[in-house]
Design brief:
- By secondary structure, the chain is an alpha+beta fold.
- About 35% of the residues lie in helices and about 25% in strands.
- It has 6 helices and 8 strands; from the N terminus they run E-E-H-E-E-H-H-E-E-H-E-E-H-H.
- It has helices at about 20-25, 45-55, 65-75, 90-95, 120-125, 130-140; strands at about 5-10, 15-20, 30-35, 40-45, 80, 85-90, 105-110, 110-115.
- The protein has a 6-stranded antiparallel sheet with strand order 1-7-8-4-3-5.
- The chain is globular.
Length: about 140
């Protein structure tokens, strides 16, 4: 299972968002959406969420940053259900966190997809520094 691709959509006045058909093929009727890094939302299929949740469970409760990190993801998490039109209702708190009002980008990211405010997507993903980033990935063991 792998989410990939970039899709432009809009959120309607009721806070509903159409999930691309290619993503729906990889999801059950319910999946998890939570606060993400860089100001976006992360959306996980249930099985991938369980893997992530287990990793969070293993973090030491004695470390403040571990507690804060877990709280960030778990406190913002909600189960979303696809309706017959392939839409989900995003809670107001998550829409506010990611500054989602109308134009959004859904971007596949391996085991999850991300939901971005279109302006933030454009600003955060300009890719003008990819050569420098590629060198850092090589340091992490990823050579192309």
């Amino acid at each position: 299972m792998m989410f990939m691709g970039e899709y432009n959509h809009t959120i309607d006045a009721k806070g509903r968002l159409i999930i691309p058909a290619k993503f729906r093929e990889l999801l059950d009727d319910e999946f998890i959406v939570t606060k993400g890094l860089d100001g976006c939302l992360f959306a996980f299929p249930k099985n991938e969420w369980q893997i992530f949740e287990e990793k969070l469970r293993k973090l030491p409760l004695t470390q403040k940053n571990a507690r804060k990190f877990t709280r960030f993801f778990m406190g913002g998490a909600t189960t979303c259900e696809l309706d017959k039109q392939g839409r989900i209702l995003l809670p107001q708190s998550l829409r506010e966190f990611a500054k989602l009002d109308k134009d959004v980008v859904l971007s596949g990211n391996l085991n999850r997809f991300e939901i971005w405010n279109k302006a933030d997507w454009t600003e955060n993903n300009a890719y003008d520094d990819m050569d420098d980033i590629a060198e850092q990935m090589s340091d992490l063991g990823l050579d192309i």
